[in-house]
Fold this protein.
Amino acid sequence: MANSYAVIMAGGSGTRFWPASRRARPKQLLPLAPGDDRSLLRATVERIRPLVPVERIYVVTSAALAEATAAELSELPRENVLAEPVGRNTAPCVGWAAATVRRRDPEGVMMVLPADHHIGDPEGYRAVLEKGLEAAGEGALVTVGIEPTRPETGYGYLEVGEALESGVHRARRFVEKPNRQRAEQFLAAGDFLWNSGMFFFRADSILGAIDAHLPGLAAALGEFDEAAARGEEATLVASRYAELPAVSIDHGVMEKADEVLVVPGSFGWSDLGSWTTAWELADKDEDDNALLAEAVAVDASGCYVSAPEGKLVALVGVQDLVVVDTPDALLVVPRERAQEVRAVVARLKAEGDERA
Amino acid sequence: MANSYAVIMAGGSGTRFWPASRRARPKQLLPLAPGDDRSLLRATVERIRPLVPVERIYVVTSAALAEATAAELSELPRENVLAEPVGRNTAPCVGWAAATVRRRDPEGVMMVLPADHHIGDPEGYRAVLEKGLEAAGEGALVTVGIEPTRPETGYGYLEVGEALESGVHRARRFVEKPNRQRAEQFLAAGDFLWNSGMFFFRADSILGAIDAHLPGLAAALGEFDEAAARGEEATLVASRYAELPAVSIDHGVMEKADEVLVVPGSFGWSDLGSWTTAWELADKDEDDNALLAEAVAVDASGCYVSAPEGKLVALVGVQDLVVVDTPDALLVVPRERAQEVRAVVARLKAEGDERA
């Protein structure tokens, strides 16, 4: 059987977790999962270690985060940290990683995993990854679909088709984030899964699909291969990366491919998308407060509180608030509007405020 | 004309301004007045300086706060800071100060002023004080009544009687804090004033009234005088003070006196009783936010924000909140419930938390 590789996409800027997250310390470098003091990135690596040795784990991140990422994952060979000079969505990221893997191992099978998800059931998760790798080993493009537990409008969906012998299904189609009514129809129908953003394929399979659907990207990756043979890849990446098409691997390749397979899974998955999700996942007191700080709550309920050690947070008579304190910035926002923190970060960035 | 003395009552513990106020740094030692970086106590002293020289300004505070109070008012003679071993409400405080003044100046006229009020119109205030001192010089017990601007249920009231030649009125009666309906009747009637807690009397007049209505206190004050003559007052105060009757000067003496005069006043008075009042007095932006910190407000209105220098506070989608941040404690409470912060302080005290 061919060797397995992991490619962890860790380039996110994570403004939705401000003020805990900052440009230089985004979501994936923070310990945001409940009851886990490891960063999301480290937890991601440790979760897959039973399946893939560190020498075959790659991380793609931004140049700005490369040092912090390498430091966080010091067990990885330094050359396994691929630093994008500029973010161009996921197709160039996946393509560059696939080219890197194929050069090393023409038959290599890779799984592509986001760095910032929370997994409640790591064993179930690994079982799904193994199934995905197995299906991909035969040449297929494979994705993971999460069994939905609510009519979520924040995710894309996959419509599931017939089951193959292996228990893996054909994906009938990709569906954009639906409105509430459609999301409820999807949930009722039972054959729609959340698109998790995890993928499995042989490196040569996805490069073939990129060749077919994103020829411009394929051409650039070919140049990267040639430069790599001369030991000049870094220079070429630095000058060419910004010209690559900024498109997602879903949109640019997977949705256009003749056939995509889907492994249905259910392993306590969450994309940890905002403080709202952090509250949902956290342990809560009898008044539904998630108090991740020393706190006094008087007639307060449904709140999420985070603060540095030694800081006392007193909530009196408030409901459903997110209160996140850090040494130089404090956020107060209703739990259901936590995503709007992006407006704050945008304003700070526009003003050149270093606390963005 | 007899000499004037000022007695500033500065023994409050000010839990309603937690977490800015602490046991060791209560309300009167904080710069809570809008646009004024002086502590309320210092502002009080400086406001009356045109009327009374520092040698004749006394401050009564608690033993725990004596050093901090003397340091805050370093221009006062150290012996003018009277330190109560234990708080026994205002009658012992006023009585002890009156005994101290009478020993020094048998004909002295004193004004008694709280240390923690805000005065919007200091000139108008001094005009009222002068009128009060003048009326008191003739032997009367005099108080100041504030012309009410709203049906406030948090203050006691004075019913005003006939005007004397001097423009000063007789006080018909003292009224306890009313309910809303009565407060509205008082406002409509037009002859009710807020009891400001400021008093004027000759030292010997108030001591005579204490003799008549609080004979136990009068006896103790007589012993203080005798001990003072022997240079042993401090020792006696330390051992006897806790036994003095814990009663207010209003309740224990003024309400029972045959005649009390009242000087009506209107000089932008506020008792700065809570964060709610602090918001009312503060400058506000177009969304009614009082931002006494570096802040980003996105769809936020009616909020009061205070934080240390260098701290950024982001409010998103919240209304009418008080957010007070300090290095070791943070408070979030709806503006109209700000008084309930006392519950937090009570809980911290019960737990022996030094942040109380």
